[in-house]
Structures are given as structure tokens and as C-alpha cells.
Amino acid sequence: MAEVHDRPPEQFTLKLRRYDPESGGAPYWDEHTIELEPHRSVLEAILQARDRFDGSIGIRCSCRQAICGSCGIRVNGEPALACHTHLDAAKLSAENGVIEIEPMGNMPVIKDLIVDMDAVHWKKIQRVTPWLLAKQPVPEREYLVSKEAMVDVTQTMACIQCGACVSDCLAMEVDPGFIGPAALAKAYRFVGDPRDDEQFERLNDLAQDPQGIFDCTHCFKCVQACPKDVNPMGQIMRLRRIAIGDHHIVDQNNGERHEAAVTGLIRNYGLLHEAEMIPRSYGGNSWFAKFTPAAGKELLSSLPVIIKGVLRGKMNPKIAIFGHKIPSADLKAVQAIYDKIESRPERYELNLYIAGEDEETAPVAAAVAAGTSADGGETPDAGETPNAPTSPEGSANQ
Amino acid sequence: MPAHDVLIIGAGLAGQRAALAAAEKGASVAIMSKVHPVRSHSVAAAGGINAAISVDDDWHSHAYDTVKGSDFLGDQDAIEVMCSEAPAEVMDLEHMGVTFHRNDKGEMDLRAFGGASMKRTAYVADITGQALLHVLYEQLLKHHETVARYEEWFTTSLLRDDAGNCCGAIARDVRSGQMEAFTAKNVILACGGAGQAYKPTTNGLIVTGDGIAMAYRAGAPLMDMEMVQYHPTCLVETGILITEGARGEGAHLLNANGERFMEKSAPNKMELASRDVVSRAEQIEINEGRGVGPNGAGIYLDITVVPRKRTLEALREIVNLGKDFAGVDITREPITIRPGQHYIMGGVKTDVDGRTPIDGLYAAGEVACVSVHGGNRLGANSLLDTLIFGRRSGEHAAARAASMGMPSVDANAQLLEDAARIDSIIARPREGRRVSEIKNELGETMNRSAAVFRDEAGLQAALETIARLREEADNAWIDDRGTVFNQDVLGAIELGYMVDCAETTVVAALERKESRGAQFRTDFPERNDGEWLKHIDITLGGDGAAGGPQVSYSPVTITQWEPEERKY
Asked: In this complex, is the C-beta atom of A195 within 8 Å of any C-beta atom belonging to chain B?
């Protein structure tokens, strides 16, 4: 059967980072030029180089359709699945048009593009008790649970364990012990599953762990890296919200207090009040927090950073100490947003995975949009337009 | 030397299910796979799993649909076992944590699938295989104390004792290159099909017929090898699969004239006739010049008739596949597809407990042929097959293990032999052809001659080509001289496995001089129950590869359903 091509083949040059653990030598770059249609994948290009020029190029791969999760690599410095990256796009983002291919980061390299996922990724997965602790008694037939809850956890179920998010997690780079985006997304898969019996225990564990849910720095790298829209950072934020909002877990990492400090200060001042933030994060959400020993200690240890910030002009001492002033109408508008959101009977979650709402017939999306724009405020960021926020998530947490 | 009651080779759904079942029965279990378990190709199964769990359904109806789908070549005793045990199995999986899609009442939702007389396919969006595989792996992690995992270990041969019983395997740690002999009271093969013997195929690059070839070389008979399923909806260029769930949700197939041509061959079931019927109908449209796309080599799959919201929610994976691998928004325009190699109904012959005729050797899943699929497998019956017979194999092997001592076998000679074979491949001079060239030619040959339509001349030519490729494969050279992750040398061994699978497929296809299920012989276009209502078994001749494939027959078990004309 003849192959069908939309566009004629073109030449692409790949620059592969090779490493042979048996040679005793350092990693090196290896260039191959292959010929393929521009919409074919980087994986197909690597396989062509392997089949035609050098069979010793090491890469894990199997399905070629972004479901087995084997071929996580870095393309031009960014984590990706090789099979899920088009050659034309890769060439566009490449320097000098040469597509640079490296193994993933944050994990030791075994050979060429093959990294040791057991040493990092799978170890972290095991950290989160990655199996259902089923509610008893087990029913004779299926557990009766809401459709929304199952669709909701399917977003994290869709994780293919490729490691792309682990590869470029900035928090993990600084703290290799951080449980990390993939494992915490896996944790949400159980926390969000109404059949699981230990939601509180799981959340308390992950909140109290200094390398748990409050170790994430919101850098969005994992969201960008994920080829399956699992949105690991979003799942971490949901774990926090359920831990704090539903279970009122106060953690030893000051995560809960810090969140309360930030949201409380913004409600009161309209903008962050820098001088108050540290004391309240460590000493509790009140003006008197600064006199608690925990806050004092943290303030003292932060002094060098504060001084440096002031010297470099990143902070105005007056504003930092006395706080920002914004026009009272603006402050009222900010506080109206708080009132609106906090008065909702259920928490809305932005589950971009199931973009299951048609523009024309989107009852939930429409309700969310109408609810927020009634005050003249903006509709919450719904990502690309066809993706609308859906799935009121309360049912997942019952 | 590691020793276990049950050694499972392959860690897809069948293997993992077998491991859990054997461990639950108290056996010491090892599960070994050449890839990490969640990379196994079960992960790609999209659409769902069949079980008569609806209160309006009856497993007999599921069984009859399966028998009819098999074109009456399936063994009805085995089909009864599979279909009657399906509801409890699916419930067990739900209890383990599979996030099955729910209906408004909170019960498992069911979708329509090809060849089924009612909605009976449970699903997790269109990542059902992935959800099942990952949840089983969660269970393996939970049971880490009773199930030893050998991840990224490549099996090179099966061990047999003097009495001929299977008692372990030789394997190579892919990461270190270290060779090891594993003793076991029982070995369960669960390492999938042989799709990579075809090009293109929907199957992953790891699906290279390892288990089928190893069992065949150890003397086990293969059955129904001629029955190769072409899935009706694969992307034209890459062979990537578009789930049958699309048609289950209501999508249409259209030819160049915009006609729903399935009216001609399946006026009742239309697009949801069984896969062999739909693939043939498509191929006829293409062959007769009513195809679409470049060279008229495709057919339109029109998913735009499905409500967009439903598509985005229940067929999300293929929305992305369409976008990423064909540049098509399937919610807005039709996508061009064609039939592509997808599944082999045949495999290592087993009974309903997964036992092969070799004591101590079991097989389950696509590697095996029970036979529940006969001439054609129904969509969403493969996941079921892996789980039911994986579990039954694991249970039976554990029970057998409880009644016997650990075999004492001196595996050293075979270990050295396998190690020497690998060294000799690495040392081959760069003469002749590369592994990749031979593999390509093998795949193209099979896709040309042992595909939807077959005839004597094409099959004979294929057989001659395969004989030449076998010789070339025996001398094929590789680049990688290392031991750590030498995927190159493993590729050379896999090529040998694929050649065995291809050869037995073509021999069986030549033998069956009729058209039944997936086997359509243009020179014998009718089904002939008088002569061919029987299985073709292929055994390796006494002289090993030189003896070649030997053909024999075994009867089809009929319990309730006499063969009748098959209409959809």
C-alpha cells in the first residue's frame, strides 16, 4: 500500500547528546541528517538515524502515539515526548535550525537518551501510597460515585508516567527530595477519588512533609511540559485547597498560614503588604504575629535578603513597611471578588482536561462565566478558547 | 539463581493480572518484562472492556456475539468461561480502583462496540487500557513483598528439564547486560502479539512475538496463526489506531462519493459490524477506486456526527491523535483512515486455564490462543481475554506450584549458549544487511501478502521471501558493541522471533483453503464448514528450524451454537 504524504520530505539535522557509560568518556554531541515529511515526529527522525546510520543510539520507545510514555527527552532544551513533537515545530524552535536532543533532566543518565527513572520518578511515585485504600465495605457491584468525580480523576489517571514534568521541575532541582509534580498528581488521583477512604490521612501526610505539597513554587514548568494535559501543578494546588479548605489542616511548613497571610493581606490592602507577609506566614494571620518567636526568627534570617532587595531597588522601604495604598474604589472591587468567590456554595475548579463543553451548549461554563462577569469582572482564564472551565469539583471531595 | 513458584514473562494486563492472582493464592511470584510494565502495549487499548454487567444483558448474549464474531472458529467452552466470568472480573477491577466512566446514576456507563448486540463495553474515556494497566501496576506496587519485579529484563529462551517440563527461563538484564537463569515451577508467557512483523501496524515497537516464538521453539504448538486482524480505522500514514469507540459513539464511514458504504455489506449493524467485515468493505472501496485522500488509499471516518461535547469527553485521546498525528480536528472534519494490522487472534495453544501442552508452561493474552477469538476478535474482548485468562493462568499455576517441589535443573549450559549467541551477534562482521532493512522488508511483505485479502500466489511468494529473510536475519549485523542497554542486539533477537511468527502465519494461511473471519482467500472466497471448521496447529519440526513448521489440526469445540451464516 502506498504511503500517503501531505508534504514532501525535507532534510532535518539532529544533534544528539550521546553518552556511553562503558567508554569512560564524557557525553558528546553526535549529528545526523535525516529525511522525513515535516509533520512527522522527532522520534521517527531518531529512529531513522538509528536504522540507517547508527544502531547504537539509545532511546526507550514503543507506541509512537504518546500513550506508552517511554520516549521522554529534551528537544531544544525543553522536555517533551519524542513521538509527540513534530519535526517542523522542533526545527522552528531550534538554534540555527539544528534540532538539539538531550536526555531528560533531574534524573541520572544511563546511556544516551535513557535516564534512570527508577532512581527518581518511580521512587517518588511509591512515596504517595499509590494504590486505592478502598472504602469498606466493598460493594457487591460497583461503587456508586458521581460521573463528574470519575471524569475529574481521569485527568490524573491520564498521566503516562513519562517523566517530562519531573525532568524540568525547578523545585526539584533545588530540593531533590521534593515529591514532585508527577507523584503529587498521582496523589490527587486518590485524594479526588470518592472511593478512597483516607483522604485526610493522605493530605495530612503530604501537607506536613517539608517536601510535600507546599514545596512547589508555582513555576508552571510541569504544566507546560506535560504532553497529556494532566496539569500537575494544578493538581498540587487542588491538594492544598482540599487540605486547607475541607480538612483545615495546619501544617508545620507554614503552608496554610502563608496562604492565609497572602490572601488576607490582599483582601485588606488590595496588594501584598511585604513587611507583614513573613510575620503572618510564620506567626499567624494577625498584626501581632510579628511578636511571635517563630516570626522573629524568620525575619532575622531573612534580613540579608531584605537588605539586598532594598539596596537593589527591588523594594521601597516606605511602601514595604507601611504597605501599598490603592484608590478605595479599587480596593472595594478587589474585596468584591473575595466576597463573590467565598460566598459560593461549592468550590469551582478549573479542570482544563475535560474541555467537554461546546461553545453553543455549555451550561456549566456559561454559569461560571455569567457568575463572574456579573460584577463586570473578567471571566476566569480558561486557557485556549475552546477549553472552558467545567466540572464543579465539589462532588469529587465528598 | 533466582527461584520462584511462578515466573511471568511480560507485564501487560495478562501478566500483571496473572501475578496478582498467583500471589493471592500464596505463590512466590516474579514478573519480568523487557520494558517497564506501564510501557506494555496493553496501554494502547483505547475503547473498553466487554462484560454483560447491565441488568438487561446476559452473558450468553455476549458469548453468542463472540462466537459469531469469531466466524464460528472460537472454542465455545472457552468463550463461555470468558463471558460468564467477565462481570465479576470487571467489578473486581472497579474495586481495585479503575476509574470507569459513570452514568447519571453513578453506575458504570456502557458504550456500543462492533459486533455486539447491545451496549456492554465499560470504559475510561478512551484510555481504558492505560487506566487498567496503571491500576494493576498500583496493585503490583502494593504487593511488592509478594511479587518480585524484574523490569527491563529481556527473555532469551525458556528452560525445560529432562522430562520436557518448562522450569524457568534465561534472561538478560537490559540495563547491565548481565545474563541470569531463573528457575520456576511454572512459567506464564504474557508477552503479547507479533504486530511488528507487519508494517505498518498499530502495535508498538516492542510487540515482536517474543513469547510466541520462544514457546514454538520450545516445542509448543501454535494455533489459528492465519487469523490476523486488520483494524478498520488506522491513520493512513503511520498506522496509528483510531479507537472503535469512535464508531461506537456513532461515527460514520464514507467513501469518495460520500456514501455510507457499509450499507452494502452490513445493512443492520452498519459501521458496527465486526472488524473483519468492516475492513474488507473498506478495502473493496479502496481497491475499486472509491477511496479518498492521496492515491485514493483511504476512507473517511466522520466523527462530526457525534455531538462535540460527547467527543471531547469520551474520545479525548483521538481528538488529540487527530490533531497531533494527522493535523485534523475530528470534531470539525472527517479524518482519513484505512485498515491496518492490529491484532493476532492466533498464538500459543492453551486450554481455559492457560495451560499449553508443555507441563509448567502457560500462556495468556495476545500471546495465547485459547481460542476465544477464533477467526476474528470483537472489539473490547481483548482486554477481557487478557484479564480472565491472565487470572486463571495465575491461579492454576499457583495451585500447581503448591503441589510440587522446586525443579532442580542445571541451566548453566543454556545460559552460556544464550550468552554466546548474543556475543556472536555483536561480533558479526558488517556484511550483508542491517536488522532494520530486513525488518522493513518482512513487514512490507506481510502487509502485502498476508493482509485483508490473500491468495495462493501471494502467500507462496511471501513464504519464499521469509525463507530468504530468515537467512539474512541469521547474519544481520549491528552497530552497538556495548553491554549497557544494547537495544541493537536485542533488536536482532526480536527479528528472529518475528520471522518465526511471520512464517507460521503464512504457512497457516496457505493451509486454510477457505475464507473465514480475518482470513479471506480470493481463490477460495467461501466459508467451508465441511472441510475447515477446525483449528490449524503449527508445531516446529523435530529438527528445529531445519525441520520447519509442521501442520496438524484440532477440532473446534461447539457447545450451544451451531455454525450459521454470518450477517450483520
From this structure: yes
